[in-house]
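[Automated response] Your request has been received and processed.

Submitted sequence:
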Amino acid sequence: MLKGILPEFNDPLFSIFIIFLIGFFVAVAAYFFEFYKKQKEHNSLLFFLEKFESNECSLDTKNLKYEPNMLTPLSLLAKAFEKNGEYHRAISIYLFLIKNIPDELPKYELMEHLGNTYLNAGFLGRAESIYLDILSKYPRNKSVLYSLGVVYELTHNFNSAKETLIPLETLGENTEKLKSFFEFESLIYDKTISKNEKIDALVELYKKYPNLYRVIIDQLFKLDPAKAWSIYDNKKTADIIDIIWFLDIEKIDFDMIKDDSIINEIFFIKGYTDKIPAFSDRLNLNMLNLAKQNNYDKATLIFSYICDECRVAFPMSFKRCPNCKAVNSIKVEDELGKAMQKSDNSLL
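Generated structure:
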């Protein structure tokens, strides 16, 4: 077909040379195309990161020249700033490193740290944008999917939060705890249903997810104490000992708790009943019980809240661990402390 158009060459070496030349040009073209593609991605990333720059970043990185050996120490410094709550400094370091390191994988690992820093600092929109950008490149990143679910939960976008569970389940993750938690949170913040509908829905939700006992009974005590007592389980009293301790006397159903040694001891200590109760299996309550019988009122219970997953303790109750973001992982511990003395501030 090409006879007469191209000259004929019978030398096999020339044919090999032609094939080599064609392969060379293909390789060069592929190299430059890949180079162009990476450069375009890099410029796109730089443009993306420019949205997150602000004058709040106090660390001067504009005149800092990047060197490869700076990656590890600066990363550690950023993590230290983040741990100490100096988020603006951590953010400036992460942005500097992401813009300058040439390798893609550590770049996106740093972007995840940046997203987590924004999340902890409360910049939820920025965290969401970064997580979505990472997932567009690495859709199987489990930790980013979990973090994105936290963002959607905090913004009360529970439908999107539930959608993050689908790829996690596909990746073999057990999402039952999160699924029940998102259902509970979406119900609590649902403004389209009445109070009575919400109460009934909470009772039904407990039947479906017994692991939500603490958060559901706590919510029911606020909405309808009678419904709270209807799901009360004396085998789980230790899980809600702090809730019972701070419960107002008008919310108590004394008929329901007559066989519960822990609650009876609490209510005697609090002065809700004069009947001296039998000792429960809680040592600190036993000591306060004896103190009450001897008219000593300068001691009380102090509660701390420990995450069963990361073992970090907090002074306040939580539904999701502030440290590791685990849900329904709270363990309540009590200890004896000095009671606050009531002062009379009357001017009379």
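Summary generated for your ticket: The two ends are 117 Å apart (CA to CA). The chain is about 55% helix and 5% strand.
If you did not submit this request, please reply to this message.
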